[in-house]
DNA sequence: GGCCGACCTGTGAG
DNA sequence: ACTCACAGGTCGG
C-alpha cells in the first residue's frame, strides 16, 4: 500500500458508505479491499482496526498531490462522526435505533459532474442498471487512468465530452433510453452556463437557490437536485425524498401522509422540512443513515434476520461461496 | 398550482 | 422459459 491514515474503523464503514446509494463505482474485492475512482486516480482501500491503508494509481500526466489529504476530503474525515451521531440520537429515537447497526456512515464529498450525470441516470431506474450505465459513460468518454489487476479504469468524462452532439445517438444505441437525451442536453447546458465556474457558484449559493439552478437542467427534478446538493455541493441540509424516504417518513414521522396519492411538491417539501427541523443544518447526513436501514442490500444478512419471517423460505439453488 | 399518465429498458421475483 | 411489476423520478399536458 502507498500510505495509510490513522483512523478507527468504527468511524468509517466503507460497506455502508459505498453501498448506501451515494456512489455507484466502488467495488469490493475478494480480499475485502475496495477499488474505485476519484480525483483522477484509481484507489484501492483496505481497512484494519486502526488504519485506512490506501494505494493510488494515476496516469503520468496527473499532477502530484497529497493523496492522504484527498481521502480526508472525499470522506469528510475531519467531521467528528461520533459526536454528530450523538447529537442526532438525542434529537430522534428512530435515528438512535438505526445508528446501532449503521455505524460509520459517511456522506462522501463527490465530484459534481460525476454526481450530476450519475443521478440523471438514477431516475426511475434500478441500481444494477445505473451502475452499468455509469461504467458505459466512463469507457465511452472518459480517459483511461491505468490498469489494476488486469482491469482498465477510466476517469469520469469531462462535461465537454458529454455535450457533443454524437452523444445522443451513441447513448441511445447503448440502451440509455430517454436518459440519453437528458445527458447530452444537460451537458450542453452546463457548458453554456459556464462549466466549472457555474458549478463553483452552486457551492457558494444558498441551498434552495442552488437547487433551483440545478433544476434548469433536463432530467433533474427536485429529488435528483437534492441528491446533487447533498452529495457534491456541500449543501448538507438537502433531503432527497425518494420512495424509500417517503416510506420512512410515513412509517415513523408523518403518518398522516400515508394515503396521499403521490409525492407532490407540497408533500416533498413537508418531508424535507420535517427532517431539517429535527436535525438541523446537517439533516441530509442522518437521513442517509436512516436510508441505509431501508435498503434491501443491508437486510436479511444471515446473522441478523429479524425483519420478515416469510423471508425464511428455502432458497433454491443458492450456492454459497466458500473462501 | 396540483395531479396524472407516459416513459426506455433491464432486472428479478413469481 | 416467460411474463410483468418495478426501479432512489421527470416531464408535459
UniProtKB/TrEMBL annotation:
Compositional bias per record (Basic and acidic residues), positions renumbered to this chain: 302-313
EC number(s) recorded for this UniProt protein: 4.2.99.18
GO cellular component, one term: nucleus
Compartment list: Nucleus
SUPFAM superfamilies: DNA-glycosylase, TATA-box binding protein-like
Residues of the HhH-GPD domain: 121-295
Composition skew (Basic residues), residue ranges: 314-323
Top-level lineage group: Eukaryota
Ranges for region Disordered: 302-323
Keyword Magnesium set for record: no
Reaction catalysis annotation: 2'-deoxyribonucleotide-(2'-deoxyribose 5'-phosphate)-2'-deoxyribonucleotide-DNA = a 3'-end 2'-deoxyribonucleotide-(2,3-dehydro-2,3-deoxyribose 5'-phosphate)-DNA + a 5'-end 5'-phospho-2'-deoxyribonucleoside-DNA + H(+)
PANTHER family linked: 8-OXOGUANINE DNA GLYCOSYLASE, N-GLYCOSYLASE_DNA LYASE
Name under which the protein is recorded: N-glycosylase/DNA lyase
Species: Parthenolecanium corni
Amino acid at each position: 500500500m502507498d500510505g495509510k491514515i490513522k483512523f478507527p474503523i468504527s468511524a468509517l464503514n466503507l460497506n455502508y458508505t459505498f453501498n448506501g446509494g451515494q456512489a455507484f463505482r466502488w467495488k469490493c474485492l475478494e480480499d475485502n479491499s475496495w477499488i474505485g475512482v476519484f480525483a483522477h486516480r484509481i484507489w484501492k482501500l483496505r481497512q484494519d482496526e486502526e488504519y485506512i491503508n490506501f494505494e493510488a494509481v494515476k496516469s503520468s500526466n496527473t499532477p502530484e498531490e497529497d493523496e492522504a489529504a484527498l481521502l480526508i476530503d472525499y470522506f469528510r474525515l475531519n467531521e467528528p462522526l461520533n459526536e454528530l451521531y450523538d447529537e442526532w440520537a438525542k434529537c430522534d429515537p428512530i435515528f438512535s435505533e438505526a445508528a446501532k447497526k449503521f455505524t460509520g456512515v459517511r456522506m462522501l464529498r463527490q465530484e459534481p459532474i460525476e454526481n450530476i450525470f450519475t443521478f440523471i441516470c438514477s431516475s426511475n431506474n434500478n441500481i444494477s442498471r445505473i451502475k452499468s450505465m455509469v461504467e458505459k459513460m466512463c469507457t465511452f468518454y472518459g480517459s483511461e487512468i491505468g490498469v489494476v489487476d488486469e482491469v482498465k479504469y477510466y476517469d469520469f468524462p469531462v462535461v465537454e465530452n458529454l455535450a457533443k452532439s454524437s452523444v445522443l445517438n451513441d447513448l441511445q444505441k447503448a440502451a440509455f433510453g430517454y436518459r440519453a437525451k437528458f445527458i447530452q442536453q444537460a451537458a450542453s447546458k452546463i457548458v453554456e452556463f459556464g462549466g466549472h465556474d457555474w458549478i463553483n457558484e452552486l457551492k457558494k449559493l444558498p441551498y434552495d437557490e442552488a437547487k433551483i439552478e440545478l433544476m434548469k437542467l433536463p432530467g433533474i427534478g427536485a429529488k435528483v437536485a437534492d441528491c446533487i446538493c447533498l452529495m457534491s455541493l456541500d449543501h448538507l441540509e438537502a433531503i432527497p425524498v425518494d420512495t424509500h424516504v417517503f416510506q420512512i417518513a410515513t412509517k415513523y414521522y408523518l403518518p398522516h401522509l400515508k394515503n396521499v396519492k403521490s409525492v407532490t411538491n407540497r408533500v416533498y417539501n413537508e418531508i424535507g422540512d420535517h427532517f431539517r427541523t429535527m436535525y438541523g443544518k446537517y439533516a441530509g447526513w442522518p437521513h442517509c443513515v436512516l436510508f441505509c436501514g431501508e435498503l434491501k442490500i443491508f437486510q436479511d444478512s444471515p446473522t441478523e434476520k429479524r425483519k420478515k419471517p416469510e423471508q425464511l423460505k428455502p432458497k433454491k439453488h443458492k450456492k454459497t461461496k466458500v473462501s
